[in-house]
Amino acid sequence: MAKIKTLTLSDEERTALDRAWRQGKTHDYRQRCLMVLQKAQGRRSKDVAAQLGCCEPVVNTWVTRYQAEGLAGLANRPGQGRKSILQKDTDLAAVRQAVQASRQRLSQAKAELEQELGKGFSTLTLRRFLKKTVAATNASDAP
To answer: Is-contact 5 46, C-beta < 8 A?
Structure first.
């Protein structure tokens, strides 16, 4: 029989976890906080996993990571996820130039950019990139 992972939390740790569970930015982060809180209450990993819709090793992995790194260990680490096709620091000037040249025809700007940058992407990707960079530019220009 496997050893049951036990976890004891101080009042400060429990309060911090509860706050992170209630106010965390992402669903994954809140769910991980809840896993740790439930394990601290003495629940079995199997029961926690069944309630949260995952498997036992996932629960045990997050509990171990919390014990090693604290609350910061429950957050996604940088570099996870799909990388952006268009990069703000390298492609922004070319995108602005192409969009200004054919302002009313985004599909034409997309075709020019694909040829110039050597990258394939959809019109929706270009729209998202423009929306994100415009929002960042507007935020930095605000007083």
So the answer is: no
45 in Cβ contact with 39 (< 8 Å): yes
Report if pTM > 0.70.
no
Q: How far apart are CA 29 and CA 63, in angstroms?
A: 13
DSSP-derived secondary structure letter, 3: P
Provide long-range contacts, Cβ within 8 A and 24+ apart, for 32-35: 32/62, 32/66, 32/74, 33/71, 33/74, 35/59, 35/62, 35/63
3-state class (DSSP) for residue 36: helix
Q: Judge residue 35's burial from the number of C-beta atoms within 10 Å of its C-beta, 0-12 exposed, 13-18 middle, 19 or more buried.
A: buried
What count of other Cβ atoms lies within 10 Å of the Cβ of residue 139? 8
Q: What is the DSSP letter of 70?
A: G
The overall average pLDDT reported for the chain is 88
Q: Which residue blocks in 41-122 are alpha helix, DSSP H?
A: 45-52, 56-69, 88-101, 106-117
Letter for the amino acid at 142?
A
pLDDT digits (tens, 9 = 90+) for 105-120: 999 999 999 999 999 9
- Each residue's pLDDT tens digit, 64-83: 999 999 999 999 888 877 88
